[in-house]
From TrEMBL, chains A, B:
Residues 11-79 form the HTH gntR-type domain. Its cofactor is pyridoxal 5'-phosphate. This is DNA-binding transcriptional MocR family regulator. GO terms for molecular function: DNA binding; DNA-binding transcription factor activity; pyridoxal phosphate binding; transaminase activity. It comes from Halalkalibacter nanhaiisediminis. In the C-terminal section; belongs to the class-I pyridoxal-phosphate-dependent aminotransferase family. InterPro entries: Aminotransferase_I/II_large, HTH_trans_reg/aminotransferase, PyrdxlP-dep_Trfase, PyrdxlP-dep_Trfase_major, PyrdxlP-dep_Trfase_small, Tscrpt_reg_HTH_GntR, WH-like_DNA-bd_sf, WH_DNA-bd_sf.
Amino acid sequence: MEWKPDKVNDLPLYKQISNYLESCILNGEWPSGSRLPSERNLAKTFRVNRSTINSAFEELKSSGLVQSIVGVGTVVSKNVWENDQNRTPNWDRFVKEGFYLSNNPINQMIYQLIQTEEKIINFGIGELHADLLPMKLMENVHRSMKLDGDLGYQHIQGNIKLREVISTHMKQYRNITASASSILITSGAQQAIHLIIQCLLCPGDSVANENPSYAYSLPIFHSDGLNTHFLDVQDEGIDPEQIIDLYKKHRIKMIFLNPIHQNPTGTTLNLERRKKVMEICNKYGIAIIEDDPYSLLTYDDEKMYSLKSMDTNGLVLYISSLSKIISSGLRIGWISGPQPVIQRLADVKQQIDFGHSNFSQWYATALLESPYFNEHIIELRRGLKNKRDLIVEAFKHELHQDIRFIVPNGGIHLWCESNHKTINDQLLFNDAIKRGVIFAPGNTLGSQHNFFRFTYSRPEMNTIANGIHRFAEALKASIKK
Amino acid sequence: MEWKPDKVNDLPLYKQISNYLESCILNGEWPSGSRLPSERNLAKTFRVNRSTINSAFEELKSSGLVQSIVGVGTVVSKNVWENDQNRTPNWDRFVKEGFYLSNNPINQMIYQLIQTEEKIINFGIGELHADLLPMKLMENVHRSMKLDGDLGYQHIQGNIKLREVISTHMKQYRNITASASSILITSGAQQAIHLIIQCLLCPGDSVANENPSYAYSLPIFHSDGLNTHFLDVQDEGIDPEQIIDLYKKHRIKMIFLNPIHQNPTGTTLNLERRKKVMEICNKYGIAIIEDDPYSLLTYDDEKMYSLKSMDTNGLVLYISSLSKIISSGLRIGWISGPQPVIQRLADVKQQIDFGHSNFSQWYATALLESPYFNEHIIELRRGLKNKRDLIVEAFKHELHQDIRFIVPNGGIHLWCESNHKTINDQLLFNDAIKRGVIFAPGNTLGSQHNFFRFTYSRPEMNTIANGIHRFAEALKASIKK
């Protein structure tokens, strides 16, 4: 709800609000029988006192548009429609049905706060702050771009120029050989994962995820059809032997891994384990979905080679994106793997959204082709390392006796565990927001409670220390309780 | 497959091709056991003679990489991998599974030809040719655009500025009152339809579609879970009484309509029928999904008001897009309807693709806000009317005794029926492609055979007559058979 009352308007705030709600009701935006948001939520949305909302509701009640129902809330009246025989579609039932589960309420709240008010310091969203984006490079690309390309639908696997540039990029930066024909452009890694699950698996199939993992936070892994099992992430990544156990017990067909600078733990599957994973999956014919958003973001000079770079057997479907190395707003990701699989995924992507915006594909092509791209990656690593140092410093300073964490040597996440086992994660999260800081509670990512993910790429440099200070205060307050 | 052999290279073509295929096999792009495309298809893809592909295959066979299996084709050998104990994941089974059906093979072929070679005249894809796009306006927008906006993830309903501009646009051009909060930005109308089906319906639900319709061509309507029934489209659109029949027999919960300049028939549900549809759906509580891509494209001055513009009851989920009025490459569509429904759809869109590219949202905002937008729409209508006149003229000239059609007074499609009942649609389609013209066979859109859709917005002005001439020759040849 983005409309806001106008505080310099002559009309009293409550009246502006009741007028707005009335127009929404009369447009059908709040159909008869539907429940309005709570007074508390509306007060937050419109940035007014709760008493103002209360007055607006009274106004609507007196005109008969809404009524209070005990135990339900404020509901749009049935009798506002001239003809009593009319029936509104049962939207409430529609909303509760369908294939997809809803997001976890904590994640819903985090996504609502994506465009954070300035006073909130946001460690909750996995993306780069503008201070890490290649703004100058983008402006150059923008200025030199001519809009003379094809403005119609693209090839169903995505713009051919972009796929060729990604093929070159993968060779150069990731030691992966993949022709443009084996690449499908997706709306970030997010869509890649959904396409794979919906096109290649069917109800009753068993798969394995890392635990904790970003994938855990995706409701699709918890939907009815899929049997999702877990591979525990340790300091050196998953234990490959666990794959064999899961295969023998559950005949897992597919495993989802984020081997390098894992989200959320920041750990990397060491080389020996990576080889072992390939060997095991080769032996049992288990497909690997490798999500690799971070391998370019290693802070030291060690090159991190993905499972895909070791794959000559068509074992791995490799997912990556430009979200964590250029900008999440481009919404450019890709999948690379066996051509018959890529063609199947492309056929379904055509059905679902008829491909990706040409505009962002042109920008992505120009950015990856730019001779300054490499320089940007070097600067980005440096910037992330600085932020990592700041957050590590801040945690040591504020909470050195209260939390433990592994210092990440790449990527964008810091994963920590509180030494106090009695904390209520939900209360801590709510209290932290009140104090102006957001993080991702570990249980939304599959861990036991008491763990937290801090994405240090998201806040500005000069707010990191303050953000951790606020978190420390919230944590200390919750320990005392 | 976009790689092509280099005809000026010293290496013989067959050798270049066998080297390329070998590298794809060794990368795992064609895993062991997978079937290579047929010689015929590869010859087409690489634009060489079939004998060249045959030589390349012989080369691969002699090195043991592939083998011929009678009744199957050319298959990647199992023994190319050093270790015989390795098992490739059963990609073939993966590709055949999953929730989504494949596209109809004819549609797959049409989508493969999206970026048509110049010599093919393409009436098969529902989009505008560059000669109808507001190129000057776009260039102005591009030049005056500053990349200082937020480059991160957007609000999960889409960029707020764009939603506000769409809200204003709907008021001004469509007589629809909808606040920005009741709008969700989607990747074209295509994604809107998929979100609605997957979020609001569940297996066993009954819905109704127009027949013929674009929706018919979407495999999701034929997937197992949904019971899809049909409302026959006549010259004045569907018969509202049929909705009552379907409700009584099948308890349909939702109907999908494209009431104005319908795809594919070009017909418009007349005002009286539109009112009747609203009355019936109000009475039975049936939700209406109104797909309205064309209402701005009426050639005469009559304003076409959508069902949504008559809806005060929250009965209609309204879908539209910029694909047919600005450019399909923007991939900007939207859904407007009851806020709780929009919020549910937005929550799932976040899960699926984490929102839409910022870049195309900025362009869309600037284009809709431009004072020249109205002028563009007027020019677009004029351009479409000219193309309509040309195609009507061409049909009358070439085939006046062989086909019947309704002259469309808006939109982009012409629907025609052959007077000869013995034609084989598939053979006619294939023959037409050989002669350099593509159209959409009616049976892919749900009609009986013998019907054809010609999207006259897609070819250039000066190719329309020639395209219909080619079609006429193909049709006459198929009548003779």
